[in-house]
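Q: What structure does this chain adopt?
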Amino acid sequence: MTNAIEIRGLTKKYKDFTLGGITEDIPCGFASALIGANGAGKTTLIDTLCGVTAKTSGDALYFGSKTDTDDPELRNMIGYCSSANLFPQDWRLKTIAEASELAFDNFDRERYTKLCKRLKLGDPADKGQKKLYKMSDGNKMRAYLAAVLARDTRLLVLDEPASSLDPLARDLLCELFREYLTERDGERTVLFSTHNIADMEFATDYAIFMANGKTVERGFVEDLKEKYILVHGDAKDVSRAKPHLLSCVSNRTSFEGIAYAGSAETLEGFDCAVETPTLQQLSVGILRKAEEDGEDNDNYGGKG
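A:
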């Protein structure tokens, strides 16, 4: 399997936060999600990979040969979309199109218009179009997505693209991801960040979990669902089950947690119910474990 990005020892140091060193591979041909709580380092990693923020140390290799994020050819291959103000806020949809045509030779104006209409923004040529600062956060993100998806890129890198979208728009975003990947089967890649995976599970093939500026687990979603199990049972059984759980939450009547799949038989012997977790349930369990461990994440995600 080829990789869209190979990250090796990447770090970014601020006064009160350090990212890294991150060593991960982003597989080509799939949608990969960076999952973590606010402040985990997802935005810093994305901005560093896209050259928005200068790295402190380490390297990243793109498409097997490119390393310089200032290379115009590489920039043309990557579609970057931030949840912050991606364009000047006094621009309209038409201005975004005009600027994108000048900046990128792979921008398709006709495709942009179709995407704007599909994303419920209307026709960019309409005189009544609002300036960005007058749009809701959700509509701003729709405009940013239309612009980046109108380009013929090989890699989409998006920071929290679903955070301001309503459920129907998130569902459409998942659909657009799938279409983007299918159009050039195996040649295109999506990397996006999220702190809430529930509405984006359908769009996620590969997941990387982040906490405290580090990655704590990674893998294809189907493999992770085989590696871990969801466990729940009566509160009276929690003391026996807890030594076999990676993380757990309980109340007066019941408990729920995740464990390695190899512990299933033992836990079933304690009258616990064992199920295949959703990606959302996995995210909560894995990130809770990372939070409990604090900075000591080096051995997490090993064989189970």
